[in-house]
Amino acid sequence: MNYYRVHSRDNDTCFYYDKNEQVQLEYCPTCGLLTNREKAREQSIAIYRKKGKYLMSDTWDGETIVSERFVEIYNKYNLKGLDFIPLPKSPHYFLLRCNNIVRYDYDYNTNLYMKDKCPTCNQWYEICPQGILNIRMEDEAIMEADTFYVSDIIIGEKVARRRILYATDNIPSYFKIEKGRIFFDKIERVR
Ligand SMILES: [Zn+2]
């Protein structure tokens, strides 16, 4: 089964970082990383306002937003793996959720850059996969067609942190047919 990393352009907004009056952000006293990201995300759903028009786009703090048109394509081709959470202040747009977790292949990517794990909050300050985004072969073997997945690993640095979003065949070709501008990078094993 071929699979691809799915990504899109940034949309020049934050989902929770610039909403200090309405969203209570908590930071680790040792390293300064956000420690209540889940709660901040939940609180921001009610107040997030998007900028511009797009099919799919990422916020600076690592969330992915999609339009109604994206959801139409998803439903038309009976795709699987995603949930769409309505954003009341951004009509016709949704926060993307994926609970299909696959395991990142740490053994294959021995150069994974992981800088400083904080002893207080237990988060890595920075994780960068050095171009290698493969998941474990056991998990590749059970991936299903037309389905979205996310990595167990959370990559990024202080502000933007996200799981890697994957799609299997034939999702890229459906988006091509529908002229949906999203980027799909094929994940291959070179050794
Ligand atoms: Zn910390």
Brief synopsis:
This protein has 191 residues and is of the alpha+beta class. Helices cover 15% and strands 29% of the residues. The site of zinc ion has 8 residues, from loops.
Give a description of the structure.
This protein is an alpha+beta fold. It has one domain. The strands form three sheets. It has a five-stranded mixed beta sheet with strand order 6-9-10-1-11, with no helix packed on it. Strand 9 and strand 10 form a beta hairpin. The two termini are 17 Å apart. The mean pLDDT is 93. Bound molecules: zinc ion (ZN). Zinc ion binds next to loops.
Query: Which term fits the overall shape?
Result: flat
Secondary structure: number of strands: 11
Number of domain modules: 1
Order of helices and strands: EHEEHEEEEEHEEHE
Broad structural category: alpha+beta
- The amount of helix comes to 10-25%
Give the percentage of residues in beta strands.
25-35%
Helix count, DSSP H or I runs of 4 or more residues: 4
Uncertain stretches of 5 or more adjacent residues: none
Q: How do the strands of the widest beta sheet line up side by side?
A: 6-9-10-1-11
**If you compute it from the alpha carbons, what radius of gyration comes out, rounded to the nearest whole angstrom?**
17 Å
- Main sheet record: 5 strands, mixed
Bound molecules: zinc ion
Mean pLDDT: 93
Give the end-to-end Cα distance, rounded to a whole number of Å: 17 Å
